[in-house]
Amino acid sequence: MWTLRKVPGAAVVSLLVSLLAIGSLLFTPETSAMDTDCFPVLDEKQPQYVVAYGQYMHEGLREQKIKKKYNSQLPVWISGYQRGWMTRIKDEGKYTTLGVAPEAGKLLNGILVEVRPGIINTHDRTERRMCRTRLDRKSISSMTGQVIPSKGEFWIYTTKKASRLQPAGKFPILMSEVDEFLTGCIEQAEQFNLTNFPEQCIDTTDFWSKHWTNDRERPLTGRLVQVKRRKVDSLLSKLKGGLYENVRAE
Fold it and tell me: Fold for domain 48-248?
C-alpha cells in the first residue's frame, strides 16, 4: 500500500529539475508534434504522391533521398504554381535554390512520384524552409496521356514566405544545382520520349539571374553526382541576354 510523506522543499526542487531535464531530452525536434498547418497529417490508408520539380527529378538524387521506395512516376503539368530560384539558404552556405509558390496563371512541369508515407514523414521532420502543400487533383495534368490516379493524396513542397527571396550577390544560384536540375529534366525527356521537356523546365522556371556562381568542380552543397554537362550547357546557351556566357566566364 502506498503512503504519503512530506518531502523537503529542496528535494522537491531537485526532483522537478531532474524531470525537466529528462523531458528536454525526450522532447526533441525529431519527436515533437509536427506543425500540421505546414505538414498536414497524411491519410496513410491512401496512396501518397509528391511532385518532384527541381533537383529530385534527377534519378540518382531522388533514389538517394527516398531510398528507391517509390512505385511509379509520371511527367505532369502543375497549374497555379510558380517555380523559380526563390529559396534563400543562409546556414548551409549562402545561396539561392529552387522553390515553388502558389501563383494564379502559372504552370510548371515535374514528375509525380508515389512515395511511402514513412518517407514523407521523415522528410517533413528535417524540412525547415518548405511546407508540404496539398494539391487539387484538378491542377495536375498528364504529359503522356496516362491517367492521373483517381485515388490518393497529392502534395507539392512550397517555399515558406520567410525564405522566399530572389538571388542576390551574396546568395547566388549554384551551377552545381542547375546541373542537377537540368540533368533530371534531360533524363525524364529521354525516359518518357518528351522532346521539349528540358526546354520547358527552363521556360517555366523564373528568376534566372546574373547572381550565379560556377561551383561545378567543387559543389558548395558537397554533393558529387553524375550530370550531363554538355547537354546542360547547350540548353543554358539559349537563356536570354547571354546570361550563361557570363557564368561560364567566371
Answer: Hypothetical upf0131 protein ytfp (3.10.490)
